[in-house]
Amino acid sequence: MRRLLLASLLILPVAAQAQAPEGDATRGATVFRQCTVCHTATAESRPTGPGMLGIVGRTAGKAEGFRYSPVMAESGVVWTEENLDKYLNNPNQFMRGNRMAFPGLRNPQQRADVIAYLKTLQ
């Protein structure tokens, strides 16, 4: 019995970490405002970043009108919700050598909210 209790105490934190928070697109639009320094919520790219329209499901480094770093353009990464979460947490750790200067969103709820918002940009 004691072993079972110990085992469940060890498993619970892992299970809690694995479950991502549910995102809210309205809150995500607010968080996304800090991204608009470099990105748009349209297909239009800026000199500093590609447009985010259609980002969810798109292959990294393939948006028209933006010159990507070689590491991004050749990564083959598809922007799934999981990959976006990892990238937004720490862009340089997820893809070393990319040019995005943003240090990342450390708050899991903010990342989930931004991803929920990005999903509306189709």
Would you kindly provide a written description of the structure presented here, covering whatever features stand out?
By secondary structure, this protein is mainly alpha-helical. It is built from 6 helices and no strands. The chain has helices at residues 2-18, 25-32, 70-73, 81-89, 91-94, 108-120. Helix 2 (25-32) packs across helix 6 and helix 4 (81-89) packs across helix 6. 18% of the residues are buried.
Overview features:
122 residues, mainly alpha, 6 helices, 0% strand, globular
Structural class comes to: mainly alpha
- Work out the helix count: 6
Helical residues, percent: 40-55%
Uncertain segments: 4-16
Mean pLDDT: 89
Radius of gyration: 17 Å
Describe the secondary-structure layout.
Blueprint: H1 2-18, H2 25-32, H3 70-73, H4 81-89, H5 91-94, H6 108-120
Q: What is the gist of this entry?
A:
The chain is mainly alpha-helical. Helix 2 packs across helix 6 and helix 4 crosses helix 6.
